[in-house]
Specification:
The chain has about 140 residues and is α+β, with helices and mostly antiparallel strands. The protein is built from two helices and six strands, in the order ααββββββ. The model has no long low-confidence stretch (mean pLDDT about 85). This is DUF4307 domain-containing protein.
Length: about 140
């Protein structure tokens, strides 16, 4: 038999590698937190500044195939045209009609327009799908 004890075979500390001081850990976590905060602030700043905001102010069901949608559009640069896609939805929520609307340049950054949308079945509501700052050529005035 060997006279090697359990204490001779295994080290007494749980982690035999180099130790990092508590002060070093504290500084490391502080730097990591600051860097993560700066990255998060940068990402939020990039995503928070939408050049065009829109909302449906009202809608009026004209008949079984038509709805008038009143849209409020606010843009950063009112001298540039904007395109918005508005749509009609039935009472069950399915899309029944869609239309692209050109919002021409204006003096004010906020404009309100009303536009009809033809539908494939009785409309229940109108909403805005989204707006963009790059209208297609076929919508622009000649």
């Amino acid at each position: 038999m060997s006279s090697t004890s359990v204490h001779d075979r295994y080290p007494s500390s749980r982690y035999p590698g180099p130790r990092v001081s508590t002060r070093g850990k504290r500084w490391g976590f502080t730097v990591l937190g600051i860097v993560a905060g700066l990255v998060l602030a940068f990402v939020l700043a990039q995503n928070n500044s939408a050049p065009v905001e829109s909302e449906v102010v009202a809608f009026d069901i004209v008949d079984d195939e038509t709805i008038d949608i009143q849209l409020k559009v606010t843009r950063d640069d009112p001298s540039e045209p904007v395109v918005c896609v508005i749509r009609a939805r039935s009472k069950d929520g399915s899309e029944t009609g869609r239309r692209e609307v050109l919002i021409p340049p204006s003096e004010s950054p906020t404009v309100i327009i009303t536009s009809p949308v033809k539908t494939s079945q009785r409309p229940g509501m109108g909403d805005v799908y989204g707006c963009g700052t790059n209208p297609p050529e076929y919508l622009r005035a000649p």
